[in-house]
Amino acid sequence: MSASGGTKAIVAALGANLAIAASKFVAFAFSGSSSMLAEGVHSLADSGNQFLLLVGGKKAQREATPQHPFGYGRERYIYAFLVSIVLFSIGGMFAIYEGYEKIRHPHELEHWYWPVGVLVFAIIAEGFSFRTAIKESNALRGKLSWKEFIRRAKAPELPVVLLEDFGALIGLVLALGGVGLSLLTGEGVWDGIGTLCIGILLVLIALVLAVETKSLLLGEAAGVEEVKKIEAALVDGDTVTRVIHMRTLHLGPEELLVAAKIAVQHDDSAAEIATAIDAAEARIRAAVPIARVIYLEPDIYSEAEAAKGPDPSATPGGPNPHAAGH
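The structure corresponding to this sequence follows.
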């Protein structure tokens, strides 16, 4: 996995979550706190998620094959989508069920110092993991806000770890609040309410992850800045006079497909056009190194045809003119 995949952040989160999960289950065994049980399952699910991200990064490095000629870069998107499913089903739904049961059948906490001590330790450990993820992300997000970074990031690992750690910290605060109110009031129902809130939080984060990774799985175009760089690199003002139309597609976080129809001079020879295309490809790769698969089609630009506007039926994903009545 490349550095932009956030391997350091994933490993930091994995180590923190394994340690935290063990401490939470010990605290649950001594105190009977449902918040501790829900948080323990949450940390265990997070550990499995980070393992899935590492597996996806490893599998994505496989060489292309005749059956998969564009390689396996999208493996990282698939495993990130699996993370959202695990977080929803194991983490979120379990916590909601446990919280509901604790509200129906509350009981007083025993050995309260166990859950309180573990929660304080977990907040410190999760804070360290979150800090690492923020540091890794800052190197990539540039001037983007955190919301824009999560929405636009092509490498799924860092947004996943960021949201998981952010959710974990909020969940720990909710658990601490539930345990604290149970101790102050003597009512175990507050522990159940805290657990229920943790479950709802995890489900919401899982839904956000599912929506974002679904978009990546469907295939996203290059960012606005990358598109501008590619268009500028294509035109040399001599043989290649303009870009008639262009499509880009991420085959993986660090691999971009570029397909473009370019305008050339009508009296250029085939040899001149072939040389110009080779030069254009070299300029694109120099401007946007992740543009590894490039297809360029030369054509003669016609103002009359351009004035008619784009043909929807010729656009990938556009309406099929032969689909009527089916």
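The two ends are 45 Å apart (CA to CA).
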